[in-house]
């Protein structure tokens, strides 16, 4: 089968899933250690993330909060796209996938230290690109018991035969 035929077969597989939620990930607790580790690695040590006492006294959230980009960086875990069986199940006939970027990214609600989050994934758009297929996923990161999500992002991936 040629690469073009593989792409066409994959399009037939994935297009019926547009608009459908395809995955709900596991809950993950965002503890202070994870927040502090992320702050150290990125150099973003703003007190609202790392100073528990000050955040308790001065923050409108009365707690430290996770960095928005920490939440974003956890998408591979939250979507389970790093699971060994993920690729073959979700991209039949394709050989590899690359992260292509983001269209829209919002952080509607902060993630307080100790909160649990999970991701829900919907296929938003699918289109052919040179040599492969581009998939736009709408990913919503929920906060357990929260009214608003922590993160809403249009994530772009490209898959190739």
UniProtKB/TrEMBL annotation:
Q: Which regions span the lipid bilayer? A: none
Q: Which residues form the MaoC-like domain?
A: 17-131
Q: Name one Pfam family in it.
A: MaoC_dehydratas
Coiled-coil region? none
Q: What is this protein called?
A: MaoC family dehydratase
Concerning SUPFAM superfamilies, the annotation shows:
Thioesterase/thiol ester dehydrase-isomerase
- Highest rank taxon of the organism: Bacteria
The record, for Gene3D superfamilies, names:
Hotdog Thioesterase (3.10.129.10)
């Amino acid at each position: 089968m040629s690469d073009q035929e593989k792409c066409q077969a994959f399009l037939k597989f994935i297009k019926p899933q547009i608009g459908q939620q395809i995955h709900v990930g596991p809950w993950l607790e965002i503890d202070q250690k994870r927040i502090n580790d992320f702050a150290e690695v990125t150099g973003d040590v703003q007190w609202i993330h790392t100073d528990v006492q000050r955040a308790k006294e001065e923050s409108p959230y009365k707690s430290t909060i996770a960095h928005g980009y920490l939440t974003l960086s956890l998408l591979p875990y939250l979507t389970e796209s790093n699971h060994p069986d993920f690729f073959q199940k979700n991209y039949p006939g394709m050989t590899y996938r690359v992260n292509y970027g983001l269209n829209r990214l919002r952080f509607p609600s902060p993630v307080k230290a100790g909160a649990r989050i999970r991701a829900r994934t919907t296929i938003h758009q699918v289109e052919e690109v040179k040599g492969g297929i581009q998939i736009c996923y709408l990913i919503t990161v929920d906060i357990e018991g929260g009214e608003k999500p922590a993160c809403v992002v249009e994530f772009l991936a490209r898959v190739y035969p």
